[in-house]
Amino acid sequence: MRRYKKMAIALAVTLCMMPVGCGNSQEKKELVDGYYTAVMSEYSHGWKEFVNICVMDNKIVSVEYNARNKAGFIKSWDGVYMRNMNAVQGTYPNHYTRTYAGRLLDSQGKKEIDLLAGASSSGGNFQRMTTALLEHARTGNTEIAVVESETHQEE
């Protein structure tokens, strides 16, 4: 009887130490694979900001953050705007858009992104658009998320 008891305990300990399940079948999916886009509701200083993400295997694999003017020109490509903003703010669109996008990719949306000095307004917009994107990605809603501008919210 003692022998069976020892074997039963050894078997129980062994089973407790074994991993449960196989692969990702037990894993809770938080993000649905797909492409998701958020845009600001209004233009600010002639630019409308947007964020695109691609989700694969429950992970954000790419992030694009930028702004377009009414002609479709991309803000971070505007050399004159870049020089003028950098002289006044100490940053410029090609720098802060990549920084914010990189921080989202690194954090996978699991923590708030710190704002950069000189680009805090854009950073706030980025955070609001990211919140909308992650909500869509959790449900698989691939419609464009339109995010109200702060000035529009106050009215």
Task: Write a concise keyword list for the protein shown above.
155 residues; 5 helices; 43% helix; elongated
Fold and architecture overview:
With 155 residues, the chain is α+β, with helices and mostly antiparallel strands. It contains 5 helices and 4 strands. It has a 4-stranded mixed β-sheet. A hairpin with a 7-residue loop joins β1 (34-40) and β2 (48-56). Mean pLDDT is 84; it is low at 19-26.
Q: Can you lay out the helices and strands and say which pair or pack?
A:
Blueprint: H1 2-17, E1 34-40, E2 48-56, E3 59-68, H2 79-89, H3 93-107, H4 120-139, E4 145-147, H5 150-154
Parallel strand pairs: 1-4
Antiparallel strand pairs: 1-2, 2-3
Mean pLDDT: 84
Largest sheet: spatial strand order: 3-2-1-4
Can you write the helix and strand succession as a string? HEEEHHHEH
Question: What percent of the residues sit in helical stretches (DSSP H or I)?
Answer: 40-55%
Q: Distance between the terminal alpha carbons, to the nearest Å?
A: 80 Å
Query: Over all CA atoms, what is the radius of gyration?
Result: 23 Å
Class by helix and strand content?
Answer: alpha+beta
Point out poorly predicted stretches: 19-26
The strand count comes to 4
Into which percentage range does the β-strand content fall? 15-25%
The major β-sheet equals: 4 strands, mixed
**Shape by Cα distribution:** elongated
Count, helices: 5
